[in-house]
Write a structure and sequence with these properties.
The structure is a homodimer. By secondary structure, chain A is mainly alpha-helical. In chain A, 65% of the residues lie in helices and 3% in strands. A two-stranded antiparallel ribbon of chain A has the order 1-2. The interface between A and B is large, with 88 and 88 residues. The structure holds a DNA duplex.
DNA sequence: ATTGATCCGTTTGTCCGACAAACCGACTAT
DNA sequence: ATAGTCGGTTTGTCGGACAAACGGATCAAT
């Protein structure tokens, strides 16, 4: 992994960039600038392809290629396949992208486990500080459903994921939410087999979630962090009991459940 | 922010997706599958446009639109503007995207500050556990350069960013690296003014970095976390002294330093 | 009057064919 | 061996074209 190059290194580039970018990129950048600068607020319609052809004075094919780029980057979205509107990149899509990248880079379960340990303890700490009553209610409902699903591995895995997402929402911190989401997506695929192989996993999960809920109610940071650590450690132990080892790369088996970048959205 | 919908909810979708996706998306997905499944390893060339036209039996325009999508998502890269090759999405590009999204969603400095506090303490903790001698050397070199740049705000901001990136690299954990990078990019823009407005900021930064380095050398987790907390707190105080408040949204002033999604790469 | 069906212009997705410029590799001359 | 030339290849862009889907308006029916 290379280190991020600082945004601008004054010595290295003595001349202006000499490559006139292809027109479709110029189109994309022009529209992009209008959106990120706020001139086109989210929800506002971009013109039709014909409009853009007129405005930019380029061919329709060129406009279309530019649009594809923006569409892919999430800055424009289509309502009803007809209306192209400016849009804020959806966090779910971004997280999905990042997850996929992590898989392709073959990160190990150890990395995933360690990161989640850190991220989830951070999340619960901030959630303790910022949770509202609404957050608590949402989590309580999740606990309710979890109690009813103790014998359904698939449902349990979903509810576990949801629990941690709700905790993240309770932080009121979108930076941390977006930071932890990719890891959360990745671990989902490893969760379900645990409930199938390890009988005590389900009740332990419920117990931990309840303790975490309690800590959130009482705003007890230490307790919250401690239980989250145990909860994540439980996952680690359970994971090992499913026969895999921590140094395996996060694999590419569950593609279809992860790679829903296109589709319903 | 809405809650992440679980990867697959069995009740909701009873029928197959009925909309035959546009051909260019099918092209994109087909190639995407070949890449993520590993059939086309990174670096391997995709065919020319003419090849793809033949293989998919669609028009060249359609192929091109599909290619634009993949290019944008980072699964395809071009060597020499001629050769299209499969590629692993670069973490820098992903992080840039996420940063941009956070700006567009107008996250506040408070969110950014809290998240960084958590993420950086996590990073330093993992770095203490996993750092190699090479990591230490790289950080030592960064300290050296920092000592020489105490009176140059721009350079200091760059070196600070680099320091924390190096710590992240020292974790050996790419999940955490990718989780913290977007926040790191965002804070870079807020760092430089601090060195201009707050005289003691530079020496305090250096002192903190040196203490953190020490803690890494001695593998002292508690010390490392404590100093990181102080270091981040320093940033917070310095930030307030530049006249802004924590509840301002992270603003869109420094576009050009952030939005380098296209260009040199 | 509200509901339902029909019609027409618009917009998108796709195709075809074409051309200039840039690129690549081979070939030639020094 | 190096430099320069040349021709085929590939990309970027263009113009035009058409079917299908969509949206809105008009008209018919309850």
């Amino acid at each position: 992994m290379d280190i991020m190059t600082p945004p601008h290194s004054p010595e290295t580039d003595r001349f202006e960039r000499i490559s006139p970018l292809p027109a479709y990129q110029l189109v994309a950048e022009a529209i992009e600038r209008e959106i990120v600068s706020g001139h086109i607020p989210p929800g506002e319609p971009i013109g039709t392809e014909a409009d853009l052809v007129k405005q930019f004075g380029v061919n329709r094919s060129t406009v279309r290629e530019g649009i594809r780029c923006l569409e892919q980057s999430g800055l424009i979205r289509r309502e009803s396949s007809r209306r192209l509107v400016a849009s804020l990149p959806r966090q779910g899509k971004l997280a999905t992208r990042v997850s996929r990248a992590l898989i392709l880079h073959q990160v190990t379960f150890r990395e995933l486990y360690e990161a989640i340990d850190m991220l989830e303890r951070s999340a619960i700490e901030l959630a303790v500080a910022h949770r509202t009553d609404d957050d608590l209610q949402a989590i309580a409902r999740n606990l309710e459903r979890t109690r009813d699903a103790l014998s359904e591995p698939i449902r349990l895995a979903e509810l576990d994921t949801e629990f941690h997402s709700l905790v993240a929402v309770a932080t009121g911190n979108r930076v941390l939410q977006l930071a932890r989401e990719p890891a959360s997506l990745l671990i989902y695929t490893a969760t379900q087999p645990i409930f199938e192989h390890v009988p005590e996993a389900a009740p332990r999960l419920l117990a931990a979630h309840e303790k975490l809920y309690d800590a959130l109610v009482r705003r007890d940071v230490e307790d919250a962090r401690a239980w989250m650590r145990r909860h994540v450690a439980d996952f680690g132990k359970g994971f090992l009991r499913t026969g895999r080892t921590l140094d395996d790369p996060v694999d590419r088996i569950p593609f279809d459940s992860i790679f829903q970048t296109r589709g319903t959205s």
